[in-house]
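Sequence in, structure out. First:
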Amino acid sequence: MDIRHSDTNRIKCWRRELLWPAWRNRIIGPLDECLQAQEEVVRYLTTRGQHHYSRVDCGDIRYRLLPTAGLEVEVMCSKSSSPEAERVVLLLPFQHSRVLRHTHVAAAQVLGVIVPLQGLVEALERLVTNFREVVQDSDLRVVLSIVYFDDQHTLEAAAALEAARGTEGLQTQFTVLTGEFSRSRGVNVGVEAMTSDVEIVFLCDVDVSVTRDFLVRCLASPAQGREVFFPVLFSQHNPILTYAARGLRARHSGAVKLKDNHGFWRLWGFGMVCLYRTDYLTINGFDSLLDGWGGEDLRFARRVSNMKYTITRSLDHGLRHHYHPKDCSRVGKGQRAPCLRAQAMCEASGQTFGLWYFKHKHNTSMWETLKDHQEIQEEETEGGNERQKEKEAIEDER
């Protein structure tokens, strides 16, 4: 499969900071070129009548090196006070730069979010709460569509979605299907049932959390008839193993930390997709013959590539997957092996498994002897701070 942006990196150039803390101490990009790109984008937008953008507003940058041409830099400009955004793709050749593409995200543009689901009502409540908080503080317009496969929890799921009603900028749809769960069929039905004012859809999972910046990128990254955005999300490891193997108490704050050994970038997954609704229909959607979940994303990505669409891939700090146990007993034929591999990778990092092994098989703690003392101190400090907050909360209640 030819994936054009598989080596894309992203940095916040104007702050000279990386977007994921685990790499904060590494220099991974040509910062001077990125600063040059910001200035050129601001000048370019000024000539188009967008005088209100400054270099500070254009700090979300993705780039990749084209060995035979130069540096391709994608700059996203937006303000926290408005859902409008501008996506400008520059080519910084080995001589002079020029604008390759420019995508304008209008304030009135609506994003359709489609989530196929069966059971998992608690995860749905968390997702609804996340979208309510993000949308009501950002002036974005979102249609959250839940395609639910009927079971004993259908009414609970409908009630969980009902809690989002009244949130400014957030509309909801609840569609009930019968039969065995099929993510492919659920997504297909959700796209077809989406309201007519939605041009771009985000095929989502119930166990993720999003930020306002990610939703803006989801609107700005696809190009109709030409480009599909497959963000790479950060997936949380089992927090019980993560902390227990280090002799710490597991903490369930609900947040997913972008830290080594707390999770991993799901580089092989193509299940999260942002694209134009018309392009999804042109590509003929997911394979509706697949039951359960697993494998449908890779088939769809191959179909996208075969139809000569450009596939954009980049690590996205604003899209995070919460840990949950995986059940591979109900997956369809041919899906069990990939399901088991994913199940193993999602539990813990290699370092965590190693610490667990020495602790439980040899009754020896390797945690204190690790060279990464800074990480140890950070973990213990965070744990101490949370315990202090818990004590203060108990005292306040008394």
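Second:
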Amino acid sequence: METPSPPREGRLQPTLVLATLSAAFGSAFQYGYNIAVVNTPHRVLKSFYNDTYFERHGTFMDEKVMLLLWSCTVSMFPLGGLLGSLIVGVLVDKCGRKGTLLINNVFAIIPAILMGVSKVAKAFELIIFSRVVLGICAGISYSALPMYLGELAPKNLRGTLGTMTEVFVIVGVFLAQIFSLQAILGNPTGWPVLLALTGVPALLQLLSLPFFPESPRYTLIQKGDEDTARQALRKLRGWADVEDEMAEMRVEDQAERAEGRLSVLNLFTFRSVRWQLISIVVLMAGQQLSGINAINYYADTIYESAGVEAARSQYVTVGAGVVNIVMTVISASTVECLGRRRLLLVGYGICGSACLTLMLALLFQSTVPELSYLGIICVFAYIAGHSIGPSPVPSVVRTEIFLQSSRPAAFMVDGAVHWLTNFIVGFVFPSIQEAIGAYSFLVFAGICLLAAIYIYVVIPETKGKTFVEINRTFAKRNRVEILERKEDVTGAEPHAPSLPAKETSF
């Protein structure tokens, strides 16, 4: 009786599932938690700032000073994220994907302690400083985590595991909204615990992630350790015969040797990754500039115009968080079936339509009061659309469209665009909204349309394809010749792409 051969497609084995949970909960969850944790209890935190200032100077803080300090508290997080995104490339190359995530926990645990003692120390400066450090932690996580999960996953599960970054970010946002309710921790006595809780996921990751393997691709391609990579694959896949996947990684290694290691400067001048680079810039800029942060910023005003009391608007926000989680989970469970492009196009279509309808509702709600309720529906619809495509799917695509040699540098660019556009929207939108009011959502609808057109024309479907196959697809658009050379790899003769010498000389 012949022994059946192992399945060609990977399955969700316990080691793969637990490694994903450990990495995503410790990194993406605390990133999402810190996005939202200061929003709901902002009045309590401002009161602490004011009381501390009074004890020091015998007078309460001027409104302009308070506005400046609170702006720093909020904006230091994306600024730290930008800094983190600029150092992540060096870390993932030197320390590995898993090693980077473990080191990064230091940037979560230390600020958690500082914020937890800030009330006792009577130092609001500890909160502002901690927000910078937490931003660095988030900037590193935002790039290193999708890289790690994308390289752990078999190609038929790469989309599902890739969206776990956004799933856990959203879960972190949602739990921060729950814990921030005044009845729980969003009150004068509970807020230090609320802020310090960000260290718990990092501590759990430090205790669990060391038991799971490093990225097999990193181990084989960058470290040249085939035995360790083979053992890691066996643990992750659940069967002993992993030679097909080892051969695939050797082909990618050959492609990398032809391409060479790319720095960020090389990335901008290297013709063979030109459209990949443009694509991640468009995906990241579109994700932030399409209006998600503006919707969150304007949501309370929309709720109030619909007659929702300020004390109850926090519960409506929690409802929006539920919609966010449900739709993100739906995206994660369908991305391998429907594909990346379709989810992105559907998501941007819903977001653009919601922005246009919301603009009309805001313009005419003074004439037709019932339209204020339509505004709430538009907010929920926009969040649902963004959660289907623009939020989770770019984390998958940005891992897939670059080979190992260019991925760290590409993620540095990707992260920088993400955090810079995040900061720009948060800083500029209030002024735009004051200047043109509801018409600002027409701008966001236009950005949604442009992003959708670019995705439809340029970005190929990547589901079910190897990294090398995706690279070949982009090579045609980059007008780079791919030379096929045969190498003896485990008895087979796969074709490895080789780029022309003039494209690989630095």
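Remark: The first strand starts at residue 483 and ends at 486.
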